[in-house]
Design the sequence.
């Protein structure tokens, strides 16, 4: 319990821990992907931007955050619909941007 | 494509990673944790889900502070960047005046932010301040403690005085690094002063201007100390920018949950706009 009390001020919850674990897993997966299938050099996408795989992950995560905020501001909960939109958005970004 | 296989150099950035983890990532994680909970102190928390985010997104107080913030940042960028560029172009490149100009320009940057606020507070006071009393004696109805418009005028003027120097110094550094050959070639071609600026100086300054705009954007979007000391966010809420509102909510009212949600939204806005600025300004360079 000593270890728990040291980080008690951080007020961890399972959902927020899962969220950060997901981000960490994304970064690890990107590293593994690059090691096994190199190809992270910049590519010219449909927006006219030169993006690497890392850039596309950043654009996907940042855009998804705004999709969730916009949905929350306009329609409120539940948040399954913005989750679906974010996944489609991330796919589009990784495929064509 | 040739790929560098020796990745040992990555260990050299380990200290930076550790430092960033402690001063940025751990606090950010804590803010995320706070944003989905309610607390009354003593490390006792209650799950609130996304309620605080909804509350902040629907709050007119947040909308007003955000609009004021965007307006303030737009005004100071529109003034400070061109003004800084003009001053840098006008500064001498050789001779004894170079040091004088550089030191004079650096002075405002060396003054602590709360002192800047206190200085301008006294300077602009309508009864005794040099600027305040001077403007009133010229017939202007100037009282920044009571009129929102004059409060804005004073805050903008203070920021321009404090931070234009940064743009000047960055632009000046960019200008002196342009090789003389470019100017000689332009002279041989009979290029006008405008052509030299447009086709030599401005393209060469693009990188430092990007840094200057990004720094000024982020700093002005997070402005707190100077405005709090100068106006306290008033009169009314007329100069209550996002950071001031955030501190009022977090420390004044101890509403840690809504304040955490607001700071995350604030962080995302800064991240998005910084990325947009950087992408737009470096897009042509990458081609």
Sequence:
């Amino acid at each position: 319990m000593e270890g728990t009390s040291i980080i008690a001020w951080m007020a961890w919850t399972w959902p927020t821990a899962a969220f950060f674990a997901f981000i960490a897993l994304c970064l690890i997966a990107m590293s593994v992907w690059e090691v096994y299938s190199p190809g992270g050099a910049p590519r010219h996408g449909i927006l006219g931007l030169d993006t690497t795989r890392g850039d596309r992950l950043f654009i996907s995560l940042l855009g998804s955050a705004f999709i969730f905020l916009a949905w929350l501001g306009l329609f409120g909960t539940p948040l399954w619909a913005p989750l679906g939109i974010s996944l489609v958005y991330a796919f589009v970004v990784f495929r064509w941007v | 494509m040739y790929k560098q296989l020796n990745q040992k150099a990555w260990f050299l950035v380990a200290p930076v990673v550790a430092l960033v983890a402690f001063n940025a990532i751990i606090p950010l994680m804590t803010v995320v944790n706070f944003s989905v909970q309610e607390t009354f102190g003593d490390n006792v928390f209650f799950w609130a889900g996304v309620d605080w985010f909804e509350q902040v997104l629907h709050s007119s107080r947040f909308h007003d502070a955000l609009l004021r913030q965007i307006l303030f940042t737009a005004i100071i960028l529109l003034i400070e960047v061109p003004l800084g560029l003009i001053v840098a172009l006008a500064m001498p490149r050789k001779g004894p005046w170079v040091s004088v100009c550089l030191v004079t320009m650096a002075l405002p940057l060396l003054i602590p932010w709360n002192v800047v606020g206190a200085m301008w507070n006294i300077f602009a006071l309508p009864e005794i301040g040099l600027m305040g009393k001077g403007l009133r004696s010229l017939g202007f109805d100037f009282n920044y403690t009571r009129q929102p418009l004059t409060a804005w005028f004073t805050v903008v003027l203070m920021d321009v005085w404090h931070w234009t120097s940064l743009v000047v110094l960055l632009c000046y550094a960019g200008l002196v690094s342009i090789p003389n050959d470019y100017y000689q070639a332009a002279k041989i071609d009979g290029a006008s002063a405008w052509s030299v600026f447009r086709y030599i100086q401005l393209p060469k300054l693009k990188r430092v201007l990007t840094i200057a705009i990004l720094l000024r954007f982020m700093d002005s979007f997070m402005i707190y100390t100077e405005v709090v000391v100068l106006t306290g966010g008033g009169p009314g809420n007329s100069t209550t920018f996002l950071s001031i509102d955030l501190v009022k909510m977090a420390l004044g009212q101890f509403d840690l949950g809504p304040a955490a949600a607001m700071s995350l939204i604030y962080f995302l806005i800064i991240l998005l706009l910084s990325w947009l600025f950087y992408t737009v300004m470096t897009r042509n360079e990458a081609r």
Observations:
- Residues 65 and 242 of chain B are 5 Å apart (CA to CA).
- The radius of gyration of chain B is 23 Å.
